[in-house]
């Protein structure tokens, strides 16, 4: 043994066996080797002798062996995955017999992969990639894809890529095995120049001619070095500053994933369409829910002021069920007949319904948030006459807080001595098609009721028409003929009819307080007896809306089932992608990418599918919204589909979650692949 200085790369007592079941196949049986920078070493030996195995150990891909590898004075810890990733990224450049270029990346992009793991900025990275391609004579081919190149050109791309990160060791596993003699000579010359650069080139070969081109030949036989021949001294090594390596940034995974997406555009696009259809349906149904809720809300609030609560005296329903005794459900039963209090409360003296007293009105007025309490009078079967024409109004009420000017289509609310009448059932009958002309005209009205003494009397009044009302549908909550309160009460007084009211309309300061105030009114008691029964229109709306949202949520959920199919589609595609890209995974790992980088690669591709699906779904949904609303505009001039920003955001989140979950398992199995096995994949 010659006494030597510390070598750059030292292998000590390397043993390696493969196992088939329990059976051991020893391949390397104690290898001791030293390598210096500037050397161009060829490893010769019989086929199956363990040359590639040794290269994988030197290259940091194989960690299952005994012995030690020391690089630049540092012993490698083959069980420290991160350290090994760094070692491959930083120190090793690989050249393979079968080139191992990534087919969906251009020549330039292939060379850029290791450069993305350096601290160079983008301009410098591209500049270096182009310089390396120029050095191997491929400037013209930079934009081509690997399958558009000859074998010799591919091998030169592989050399440029191996040099990109400025590694100290270049491992070339039969680099000329697939090349003709011309290309072989060129490649050998490049390898020699690489050694001249002060790098260590180790090449595996079967060819004596190739071996002779180097500076040293090592011969492997029966798992040991049997021959070690120096042809010439290593090239001198200068201390040039080296390019520093760094971890691959996540953004690069996205870029590579996007390129792969583009490369397999149609397959991926079909998956995007499949996923987008599910998302689109979810979005459209949610929008339909919003639209219908909005429509109901508008219909109701157009007719009735939603800030008004109708309040009447609370009555126990005990008398109606004589044998029923005291039952728990009394409250609900009591409220039912009161719901339409505005329209039903009759001024006829015969009604058994108790009146709301002025003391009770004062009490209500004192409740916080209540701004006004109006008595509600309502009469049915009222005869209205104008000249010789007469019509019967189904309902006539005083203009009270529950009335809303939204219903007035023409003219104004009734002032003193005035009335507003319904367009279709009254105005058109009295004035024909020219119903607007009724405004300003005086009509006479009369209806029958009982006076304070219980006698039948006729209440008569005249009023000037100040406005015409109309409601777009008949949900039965509107009372479209309203006469001014003072005008009605003075006519009632003239006929000696009681002006006590069975129901009052309570106005609340803000819509948000309606629910709580309604509750409060229902809880008001006098000597532990409940006094009032209050019904707010908003509670009815919210009940209806609960059903609407339930129905649309069920529809959206049914649509969401198709998303499970989408998720499965993504999972299958990702698994297919992993198996189709096994070799690529091996190459990336050999280049120094970590397991995490590989996982990231597949997750980012899936996320790209997710985001594009959500974008497409959004576009489709808004087109769908436009079409649906145009078609439905025949039914009512209202946007029945209203996709909200919230719906869009939800769909994006759902799409991302699906994509992420779908990618998780395939990405994990990709990351777990053994780089050597991955590289051996076809
Ligand atoms: N993953 C593996 N599992 C089991 N045996 C293996 C495995 N990889 C290689 N071997 C065996 O180890 C031995 C050495 O293989 P290796 O590829 O290192 O030889 P080589 O010298 O590079 O051969 P060649 O010159 O033909 O490429 C061979 O007998 C091979 O069959």
From TrEMBL:
The keyword Kinase does not apply. PANTHER family: ABC TRANSPORTER ATP-BINDING PROTEIN MG467-RELATED, LIPOPROTEIN-RELEASING SYSTEM ATP-BINDING PROTEIN LOLD. GO terms for biological process: amino acid transport. Residues 9-247 form the ABC transporter domain. SMART domains: AAA. Pfam families: ABC_tran (PF00005), FtsX (PF02687), MacB_PCD (PF12704). It comes from the Bacteria. Keywords: Amino-acid transport, ATP-binding, Cell inner membrane, Cell membrane, Membrane, Nucleotide-binding, Transmembrane, Transmembrane helix, Transport. Residues 329-353 have a biased composition (Low complexity). InterPro entries: AAA+_ATPase, ABC3_permease_C, ABC_transporter-like_ATP-bd, ABC_transporter-like_CS, MacB-like_ATP-bd, MacB_PCD, P-loop_NTPase. SUPFAM superfamilies: P-loop containing nucleoside triphosphate hydrolases. GO terms for molecular function: ATP binding; ATP hydrolysis activity; transmembrane transporter activity. It is found in: Cell inner membrane. It comes from Loigolactobacillus bifermentans DSM 20003. Belongs to the ABC transporter superfamily. Macrolide exporter (TC 3.A.1.122) family. This is Peptide ABC transporter ATPase. Its main location: membrane. It is a multi-pass membrane protein.
């Amino acid at each position: 043994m010659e006494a030597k200085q510390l070598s750059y790369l030292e292998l000590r007592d390397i043993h390696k066996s493969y196992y088939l079941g329990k059976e051991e196949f020893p391949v390397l049986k104690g290898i001791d080797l030293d390598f210096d920078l500037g050397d161009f070493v060829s490893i010769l030996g019989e086929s199956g002798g363990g040359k590639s195995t040794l290269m994988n150990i030197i290259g940091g891909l194989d960690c299952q062996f005994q012995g030690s590898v020391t690089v630049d004075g540092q012993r490698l810890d083959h069980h420290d995955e991160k350290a090994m990733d760094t070692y491959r990224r930083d120190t090793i450049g690989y050249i393979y017999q079968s080139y191992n270029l990534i087919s969906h990346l251009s020549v330039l992009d292939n060379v850029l992969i290791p450069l993305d793991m350096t601290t160079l900025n983008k301009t410098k990275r591209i500049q270096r990639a182009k310089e390396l391609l120029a050095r191997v004579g491929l400037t013209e081919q930079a934009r081509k894809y690997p399958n558009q190149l000859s074998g010799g050109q591919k091998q030169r791309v592989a050399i440029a890529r191996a040099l990109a990160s400025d590694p100290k060791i270049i491992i070339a596993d039969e680099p000329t095995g697939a090349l003709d003699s011309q290309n072989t000579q060129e490649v050998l010359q490049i390898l020699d120049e690489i050694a001249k650069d002060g790098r260590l080139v180790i090449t595996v070969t079967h060819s004596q001619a190739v071996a002779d081109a180097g500076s040293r030949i090592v011969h492997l036989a029966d798992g040991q070095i049997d021959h070690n021949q120096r042809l010439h001294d290593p090239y001198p090594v200068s201390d040039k500053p080296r390019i520093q390596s760094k971890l691959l940034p996540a953004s690069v995974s996205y870029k590579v994933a996007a390129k792969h997406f583009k490369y397999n555009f149609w397959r991926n696009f079909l998956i995007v369409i499949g996923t987008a259809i599910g998302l689109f349906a979810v979005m459209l149904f949610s929008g339909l829910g919003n639209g219908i809720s909005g429509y109901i809300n508008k219909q109701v609030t157009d007719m009735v002021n939603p800030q008004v609560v109708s309040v009447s005296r609370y009555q126990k329903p005990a008398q109606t069920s004589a044998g029923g005794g005291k039952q728990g459900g009394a409250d609900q039963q009591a409220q039912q007949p009161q719901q339409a209090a505005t329209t039903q409360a009759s001024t006829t003296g015969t009604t058994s319904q108790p009146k709301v007293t002025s003391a009770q009105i004062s009490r209500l007025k004192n409740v916080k948030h209540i701004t006004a309490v109006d008595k509600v009078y309502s009469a049915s079967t009222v005869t209205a006459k104008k000249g010789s024409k007469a019509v019967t109004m189904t309902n006539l009420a005083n203009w009270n807080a529950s009335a809303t000017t939204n219903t007035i289509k023409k003219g104004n609310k009734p002032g003193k001595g005035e009335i507003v009448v319904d367009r279709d059932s009254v105005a058109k009958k009295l004035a024909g098609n020219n119903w607007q002309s009724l405004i300003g005209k005086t009509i006479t009205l009369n209806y029958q009721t009982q006076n304070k003494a219980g006698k039948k009397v006729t209440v008569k009044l005249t009023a000037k028409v100040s406005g015409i009302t109309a409601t777009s549908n008949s949900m039965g909550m509107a009372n479209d003929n309203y006469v001014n309160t003072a005008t009605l009460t003075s006519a009632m007084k003239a006929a000696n009819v009681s002006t006590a009211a069975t129901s009052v309309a309570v106005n609340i300061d803000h819509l948000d307080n309606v629910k709580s105030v309604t509750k409060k009114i229902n809880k008001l008691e006098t000597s532990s007896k409940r006094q009032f029964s209050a019904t707010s229109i908003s509670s009815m709306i919210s009940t209806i809306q609960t059903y609407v949202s339930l129905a649309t949520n069920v529809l959206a959920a049914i649509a969401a089932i198709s998303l499970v199919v989408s998720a499965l589609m993504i999972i299958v595609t990702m698994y297919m992608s992993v198996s189709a890209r096994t070799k690529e995974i091996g190459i990336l790992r050999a280049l120094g990418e970590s397991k995490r980088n590989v996982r990231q690669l597949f997750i980012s591709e899936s996320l790209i599918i997710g985001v594009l699906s959500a974008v497409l779904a959004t576009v489709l949904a808004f087109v769908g919204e436009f079409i649906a609303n145009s078609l439905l505009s025949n039914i009512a001039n209202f946007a029945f589909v209203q996709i909200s920003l919230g719906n869009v955001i939800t769909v994006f989140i759902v799409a991302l979650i699906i994509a992420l979950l779908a990618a998780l398992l395939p990405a994990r199995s990709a990351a777990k692949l053994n780089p050597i096995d991955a590289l051996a994949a076809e």
